[in-house]
Design goal:
about 60% helix; Arc Repressor Mutant, subunit A; about 240 residues; mainly alpha; three-stranded antiparallel sheet; 10 helices
Length: about 240
């Protein structure tokens, strides 16, 4: 896979060589989940992760808690950490809730966004497109999720941002890696259509484009795999 390009985003990703070990662990697990190298239901054992990353258990737990806060990992008492595995009904419920919350955010953004805000959103979309064209799927997925979070931030409601961050992460991990309808999951073209309508003050058009986009994302949900995965291999780590 191509090296990560230096792109502009709302949440710039620092160069890996400068990352602390726990930050690198978070990003590598995030990428493995979103790239479907680690499927839903995979157990993340603290012992294995301490050996892979050379971290103390309390650092590993901190990363797992952060992944859980983002909706990517479920922490189960007396059982450990598992990559989130929403049921089909939960998945549909989450997309339905996203429709409501993101339409609410759009209404606020339509009245409050500035030309500078729209320029920043367009730069994010350009970064999504560049990451995709360079074959960097993990970064592309991360930037696609960032777009939705940035829209929520522009709405000016911190609680809305927190709720959407978890929903966006949890639903994004369910989206297939393959093209099923001739379109790409969480398409930057669909994001651009939303921004174009917002900037033209076409509020109804913007809401229609967002609703269509989320419907397309829901239609691309991943069919569960029953294959077994090796944690170390999935994280791209050589054998010790």
């Amino acid at each position: 896979m191509a090296a990560r390009p230096k792109l502009v985003s709302a949440s710039p990703i620092p160069q890996e060589s400068r990352l602390a070990s726990d930050e690198r662990m978070y990003l590598e697990i995030y990428d493995a989940i979103m790239g479907h190298r680690l499927p839903a239901g995979t157990k993340l054992t603290e012992q294995a992760l301490t050996e892979i990353y050379g971290l103390a258990r309390h650092n590993v737990r901190k990363v797992l808690v952060k992944l859980a806060a983002d909706g990517l990992v479920d922490l189960e008492p007396n059982r450990g950490a598992y990559i989130a595995s929403p049921t089909e009904q939960e998945a549909h419920d989450m997309f339905e809730l996203r429709q409501t919350l993101e339409q609410m955010a759009m209404q606020k953004v339509a009245h409050s966004a500035t030309s500078a805000d729209f320029a920043r959103l367009r730069r994010m979309i350009d970064s999504e497109r560049e990451a995709y064209m360079q074959g960097n799927r993990p970064l592309w997925i991360r930037l696609s999720a960032d777009f939705h979070i940035e829209l929520a931030k522009l709405a000016g409601n911190a609680l809305l941002v927190d709720m959407l961050r978890r929903l966006v992460s949890r639903t994004t991990l369910l989206i297939s890696t393959t093209e099923t309808t001739g379109q790409q999951p969480c398409s930057f073209d669909e994001h651009l259509a939303v921004v174009d309508a917002l900037e033209k003050k076409d509020h109804a058009g913007a809401q229609h484009e967002m609703a269509h986009h989320l419907e397309q994302c829901a239609c691309r949900m991943l069919k569960r795999s029953d294959r077994r995965f090796d944690l170390r291999s999935a994280l791209g780590k050589p054998d010790a």
